[in-house]
Fold this sequence. Notes:
Layout: H1 3-27, H2 31-46, H3 58-77, H4 96-108, H5 114-125, H6 130-137, H7 141-170, H8 189-198
Helix pairs in contact: 1-2, 1-3, 2-3, 5-7, 6-7
Amino acid sequence: xxxxxxxxxxxxxxxxxxxxxxxxxxxxxxxxxxxxxxxxxxxxxxxxxxxxxxxxxxxxxxxxxxxxxxxxxxxxxxxxxxxxxxxxxxxxxxxxxxxxxxxxxxxxxxxxxxxxxxxxxxxxxxxxxxxxxxxxxxxxxxxxxxxxxxxxxxxxxxxxxxxxxxxxxxxxxxxxxxxxxxxxxxxxxxxxxxxxxxx
Length: 199
C-alpha cells in the first residue's frame, strides 16, 4: 500500500472511529469485546484499503467486516450469548429513562442469532435501507425482510416474557385471613361448616 493510502486510512480511522465504535457496541454489548471487534475489523480492512475504490463506501465495508468477524467469533466459541443483569450506562448523555430503555434493548438483543442481530442493528440503528442492509450482509433483500420479521417477533416475545415475569415478581401477596370459631380457637370454613351441621 502506498504512503498516500496509508495516510488516507489513518485519517479515516481518526474521523470515523467513534461512530464505528458505536456500531461495534450495538453488535456486541460488552465494551471490551466491542473494542476488540473494531480493532480486528480495522486490521482486516487495512490490508484491503487500497482495493476500496470508492472511499465513501468504507463505512459499509467496515460494518460488514465487523459483522462477519462477530459471526466467526460466535461460531468458534460455540456458546450462546447470555444477557447480563447489569450493563454499562450508555456513553451518550441522555435521560435515565432513555438509558434504561437502551440497556434493556441491548440486553434482549442477546437472544438473537448473529444474523438476526446484524439485520436489526443495520436497519433500525444504522438506519440503512433494506437494499443497503442486503448489500452489507451479502444477502438478498427478501432474506433481509424475512430475517428482520423473525427477529422482531422474537424480541417482542422476549419483552412480553420479561414483562410477565416482572408482574409476577411485583404482584402483592394475598393476605392470609385466619378466622376464629365461637370458642376462640382457629377454624376455617370447613370446621365452621361442620359445627353448623352439628347444631
